[in-house]
Design goal:
This protein is of the alpha/beta class. The chain is 28% helix and 25% strand. The chain has eight helices and 14 strands. It has helices spanning 34-46, 56-59, 131-138, 159-170, 201-223, 241-254, 268-279, 325-333; strands at residues 2-10, 13-19, 23-28, 69-74, 79-85, 88-90, 101-104, 115-116, 176-181, 186-191, 228-233, 259-264, 288-296, 301-308. The strands form three sheets. Strands 7-11-12-3-13-14 form a six-stranded mixed sheet, sandwiched between helices. Strands 2-1-4-5-6 form a five-stranded antiparallel sheet, with helices on one face. α4 runs antiparallel to α5. The protein is globular.
Length: 334
């Protein structure tokens, strides 16, 4: 798992030292550095400039004359680095743990009549494009660890049945199924008998996250892998608040099954789902961290406040702007 991230002169950060836990939330106002944090990890893994991020000049902090530098430390004490020069990235030896670091974008595909199929998918894909292909490989396999087995299926570790059960909890009444059409290199899905384009967006947006977590938890359990890390952007997209809370709880359980979740979110319900898991003793209080990002308009740099929870799910700090908009709105209604 990733333990620490150290950035120098990278985008909105002159310097940033950030601690990660098995479940870590990144939250704050728009353009405050949350996506930048995930981009830094992805850059260190890829050791190349990522599509859409521009040149090295676009990545350099405006207040620094130095070139950006990224350092990632893992829980075993080993590190990986990525430094830059005018010509681009100065290549470094990456870390084998990066082979188990996966990213799921906020720009997920959403409802599609069909998705591509390949028989060698290792990840659901950044946009969820391989979700049917990956699920097909694990449909009838076991290995889902006990903490992640849905309460309705405590003795059943079939991955596909677990996906269906968790999806129905997040969206009650949902009956999910899919088919692979290998001759056409596509997969098709159905929710309660309807094609994805005729049901709510939240189901298609959530499915890749559920599949990725359950598959990686099964891999860790059965293949004796050290861990896997998921970088998740806005997992709450298009979900009802109740579903968001259930998803936060699910992410917290995953963190106890060798699947580290680093989550960028704007959802207080995701936060509360994690806090409930802590209060119920499903997650130790020292294994959840919430980072609140703010932007200094004068220096045009970002700062981070780290927030921790006690064993009752209570937070040790509640800075101004941290999920307090509901309270402010209610006060205006009095």
């Amino acid at each position: 798992m990733i333990r620490k991230l150290h950035l120098n002169a990278f985008k909105c950060f002159l310097e940033l030292k950030l601690l990660f836990a098995p479940i870590t939330l990144l939250t704050g106002l728009n353009s405050s550095g949350k996506s930048t944090t995930l981009q830094a990890i992805r850059l260190c893994k890829a050791q190349r400039l990522l599509k859409g991020l521009g040149t090295v000049r676009d990545l350099r902090c405006a207040l620094s004359s130095a070139y950006p530098a990224i350092n990632v430390e893992f829980t075993d004490g080993s590190t990986a680095a990525c430094t830059f020069a005018e010509s681009g990235i100065l290549s470094h030896d990456t870390h084998e743990a990066f082979s188990r670091v996966y990213y799921i974008s906020a720009d997920r595909l959403g409802p599609r009549v069909s998705l591509p199929y390949t028989d060698n998918a290792v990840h659901v894909g950044e946009t969820g494009e391989n979700v049917y292909a990956l699920l097909a490989q694990y449909r009838d396999k076991g290995g889902v660890p006990e903490p992640l087995r849905h309460e309705s299926l405590p003795d059943t570790s079939s991955l596909f049945e677990q996906v269906r059960a968790w999806l129905s909890l997040i969206a009650p009444g949902c009956d999910f199924d899919f088919q692979i059409h290998a001759n056409a290199d596509i997969g098709t899905g159905a929710f309660a008998g309807f094609r994805p384009t005729n049901v709510g967006f939240g189901l298609s947006y959530t499915l890749p996250i559920l599949v990725s977590i359950l598959v990686n938890a099964a891999r860790v359990a059965t293949d004796k892998l050290p861990s896997a890390t998921l970088l998740l952007e806005n997992p709450e997209a298009h979900l009802h608040p109740r579903g968001q809370t259930q998803l936060g709880y699910f992410l917290a359980l995953a963190s106890q099954c060798g699947v580290q979740c680093i989550v960028e979110t704007h959802s207080e319900h995701i936060l509360n789902g994690i806090r409930i898991a802590v209060k119920e003793g499903r997650v130790p209080d020292n294994e959840a961290i919430f980072h609140y990002f703010t932007r200094n308009s004068q220096t045009e740099t970002s700062e981070v406040t780290s927030i921790f929870t006690d064993s009752n799910g209570m937070l040790d700090n509640w800075p101004e702007g941290f999920f307090d908009e509901s309270e402010h709105a209610l006060m205006r209604l009095l």
